[in-house]
Design a protein that fits this description.
single chain, 172 residues, Aminoglycoside 3'-phosphotransferase, Chain: A, domain 2, two-stranded antiparallel sheet, two-stranded antiparallel ribbon, 8 helices
Length: 172
């Protein structure tokens, strides 16, 4: 499964970008929206710890526009279809475009544990990007928990799982 996801993202990134539409907003551009959503979390959601982590993330330099690649824009469990543990399709291409190479790495926190996440980072050459690449993208999806807590519990649970992975990664 991990190899299939990595290969899909690598193949997408290899497509020519000349004339392609821009897509996505950087985590820094989402700062105000993320802070609003984090403020809506409860203490039980570990709001204060998540805000502390977000504050730390926002001290990192933003992506400088270098190395823009094609990105799916919403690589999440519900948008990847598997058969026999093999990726066979990706759906919901509404955010397709060229942008920050870390954008699609949010899947590492949406679906993978720490060991698999590290393998994905290495295969995607994340170390060559910027500090916190991908993690900020995953935490930027904080809107899912307050937005879906009552209306779509499965997505709210997914957000809680992502938060747990990020909290563990930051030793909280």
């Amino acid at each position: 499964m991990l190899t299939n996801i990595a290969n899909f993202l690598i193949e997408l990134r290899c497509l020519p970008t000349e004339g392609a539409p821009a897509s996505g907003r950087s985590p820094h551009a989402l700062d105000a929206d993320v802070r609003k959503c984090l403020a809506q979390l409860t203490e039980g959601d570990r709001r204060d710890d998540l805000i502390e982590i977000w504050n730390e993330m926002m001290t990192m330099p933003p992506w400088d526009g270098t190395g823009a690649v094609w990105m799916h824009g919403d690589v999440a469990p519900g948008n990847l279809l598997f058969r026999d543990k093999r990726l066979v399709a990706a759906i919901d291409w509404s955010e397709l475009g060229v942008g920050d190479p870390a954008s699609d790495l949010q899947v590492a926190w949406n679906m993978l544990g720490p060991d698999a996440r590290q393998i994905l980072r290495e295969s995607m050459q994340v170390k060559m990007l910027y500090p916190g690449a991908g993690t900020t993208r995953a935490l930027a999806h904080s809107f899912q928990l307050p937005y879906y807590r009552d209306s779509l519990p499965a997505l709210a649970a997914q957000a809680q799982w992502v938060f747990g992975e990020i909290l563990a990664e930051y030793g909280k």
